[in-house]
Amino acid sequence: ATPTAIMAAIGNATRHGFLVREGDALERLAAVKKVTFDKTGTLTYGTPGVYKVSSFLKEFSQEMVFEMAAGAELRSEHPLGKAIVLSYRYTIHKEVPDGEGFQMVPGRGVIATVKGTVVMVGSPELLFTKDIILTPKQMEEAEFSRKEGCTVVYVSVGERAVGLLALSDTLRKEVGEMILELKKTLITPVLLTGDHKNAARQIADQVHINEVYADCLPEDKMGFIEACQQKKEYVCMIGDGVNDAPALKQAYVGIAMGGIGSDIAVEAADITLVNDEIKEIPHLFKLSKKMMGTIK
Ligand code: ADP
Ligand code: MG
Q1: Per-residue confidence (pLDDT) for residue 22, from 0 to 100
Q2: Fold annotation for 3-45+171-291
Q3: What is the value of pTM for the model shown?
């Protein structure tokens, strides 16, 4: 494309809410045939509510499970973490205990010392890394909530799993339509998520995404894109989280959600969707193809 055409396209993209770091990214976008989406914060609003708190042990009330989880998440920038802290304040009306030694494990959860004990909040895999094994009953309890579309996180205190929290996030309103638009232009949508496969399927089915990869760590998301590229498939990744940064970098074109997204995701991407208006995505593809003269 000519410099003038590129400048005009960048201007148009800006009016549709895209911050394009360099014209090359728009040129590359015209060749993309596959778009990989992150789930939480990208397809969903990323502002979930805590739907259920459950306790596994008599000596830990629901409120104690909630309190320890909120304390561990107090410094979290992850949508799930922020939601847990906000919901705790809103429903329990008490101060959140401040944790120490906050540690984030991307794609898995958080670890912090709350009230003198180590607390973990996250996926079963996070707990396994510290040799905390969930019973079949505790695993099963999560399945109920996942079937209703919730994301489930477990809470451990010291050496024991003490409970779980089910969070329900809302799908962004325009996602279904956006996916159909992409499919019309023969672009294949794929869901890449760190969440459990049943929670992922529940979301994917609602918006007609057939290809789903769940339980992805940040390196798995990146690895998937790498594998596509080895097959000469050009992939655009769209994500918001720290966990998406390696994939955003690896992708032929990376697009970050600018509103909800973390700075790390924005820095890793070529383009930022400033107001998270996901319905604008198909427009950007059309724009790049027009610019490259692939379509009129
Ligand atoms: P996604 O790919 O859908 O955006 P993430 O990779 O950010 O999801 O998270 C994947 C999973 O890791 C979550 O479903 C949750 O189980 C766990 N997790 C990640 N961050 C946190 C956190 N701050 N608190 C609790 N769990 C978390
Ligand atoms: Mg996310």
Answers
A1: 85
A2: Rossmann fold (3.40.50)
A3: 0.90
Separation CA 245–CA 255 (nearest Å): 10
Tell me the CA–centroid distance for residue 244 and ligand 2, in Å.
7
* Closest residue CA from atom 10 of ligand 1: 194
Which residues in the chain are classed under CATH 3.40.50.1000? 3-45+171-291
Closest-CA residue, ligand 1 atom 18, reads 109
Give the C-alpha distances (Å, rounded to integers) separating 164 from 68, 105, 123, 161. Answer: 11, 18, 10, 8
pLDDT along the chain (296 residues), means of 10: 90 97 93 96 93 95 97 94 95 93 94 97 95 95 90 96 96 96 96 94 95 96 97 97 96 96 96 97 96 78
Kindly report, as residue ranges, where domains of CATH 3.40.1110.10 are found in the chain: 49-168
The whole-number pLDDT of residue 172 equals 96
Q: Give the pocket of ligand 1 (CB within 6 Å).
A: 38-41, 73, 76, 78, 80-81, 107-110, 121-123, 151, 153, 193-195, 241, 243
| Closest residue by Cα to residue 273 from 262, 258, 288, 289 | 258
Fold of 49-168: Calcium-transporting ATPase, cytoplasmic domain N (3.40.1110)
Q: Closest ligand 1 atom, CA of 121? A: 25
Query: Could you tell me if 98 and 119 are in contact, meaning their C-beta atoms sit under 8 angstroms apart?
Result: no
pLDDT at position 177? 97
**Atom 19, ligand 1: residue with shortest CA distance:** 109
| Local structure of 257: helix, strand or coil | strand
